Amino acid sequence: MKHQFLSTKLLWLLALTLIPGTLWGQATVGKPAPAFSLRDTAGKTHALSDFKGKFVVLEWINHGCPFVVGQYESGKMQKLQKDMADKGVVWLSINSTNPEHRDYHTPEAEGALMKKVGSNAAAVLMDSDGTTGKAYGAKTTPHMFIISPEGVLIYAGAIDNRREKNYVEKALTEAMAGKKVSEAQTQAYGCGVKYK
């Protein structure tokens, strides 16, 4: 009887562990990236399919997060965005903040803020219901994803190692040279995404 109770308890714990991944989905490196269609801060709709044939970077943002603020205050994020845009990479910043959270900005305010910090992203997309963030399993701000021209996810994780090593830059450089991404998955760090 005691053994049966332990088995039942273990199954429940296992189920609880698996539920978030099951409900959210989890984009997998080496598999097709989840499709999405989101409006930018100016109201224009962008779908992932619009960028077929190009490398795409997804950057989860929230300017109420000190880790995001630090990247932008240092100028590192804007420089990387510009350097990659010059090489034909499409950089999309995505905000999945719940509209009821204190960090939420209206599309207009978010657009003005990104302009103020000098963002060089091709577009700033609003994911207020969190559907796209959850499809990718975006957990932190920043959380970074790179999609190949064929629509396959080739990198997921942190922007850098909190020092000089920038994982996104390294992955893009390798992929654009026709090489396999040597560090295709890293542990993202930052503030938790403020989902609905």
Describe the protein:
It contains six helices and nine strands, in the order H-E-E-E-H-H-E-H-E-H-E-E-E-H-E. It has helices at 2-24, 66-74, 76-85, 107-116, 131-136, 167-176, and strands at 37-40, 45-47, 56-60, 90-95, 123-126, 140-141, 144-147, 153-157, 191-192. Mean pLDDT is 90; it is low at 1-24. A hairpin with a 5-residue loop joins strand 7 and strand 8 (153-157). By secondary structure, the chain is of the alpha+beta class. It has a seven-stranded mixed beta sheet with strand order 2-1-5-4-3-7-8. The chain has a two-stranded antiparallel ribbon with strand order 6-9. It is globular, with a radius of gyration of 18 Å. The termini are far apart.
Q: What tags apply to this protein structure?
A:
196 residues; two-stranded antiparallel ribbon; alpha+beta
Mean pLDDT across all residues, rounded? 90
Query: In percent, how helical is the residue content?
Result: 25-40%
Structural class: alpha+beta
Instruction: Identify the overall geometry.
Output: globular
End-to-end Cα distance: 42 Å
- Give helix and strand order, one letter per element, not per position: HEEEHHEHEHEEEHE
| Oligomeric state of this protein | single chain
Report strand order across the widest sheet.
2-1-5-4-3-7-8
- Major sheet attributes: 7 strands, mixed
Low-pLDDT runs of 5+ residues are 1-24
The tally of strands reads: 9
Task: Enumerate how many helices there are, as a single number.
Answer: 6
Task: Note the beta-strand portion.
Answer: 15-25%
Radius of gyration: 18 Å
